[in-house]
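Structure ticket #2291
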Amino acid sequence: MNQYETGKHTPDFLIIKRIAEVLKVPTAYFYAEEDELAKTIIGYNPS
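Resolution: structure written out below.
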């Protein structure tokens, strides 16, 4: 995790998907470049 945070390595999509499942957030959350977009993604509920 530390190497992801420091930018030394980047997780592939399957790792991101697993982390998102554990944290109960959409995978798109990790790709949001702005905080406001990340908040919108977290708040989005299609049902």
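Closing remark: The chain has a mean pLDDT of 89.
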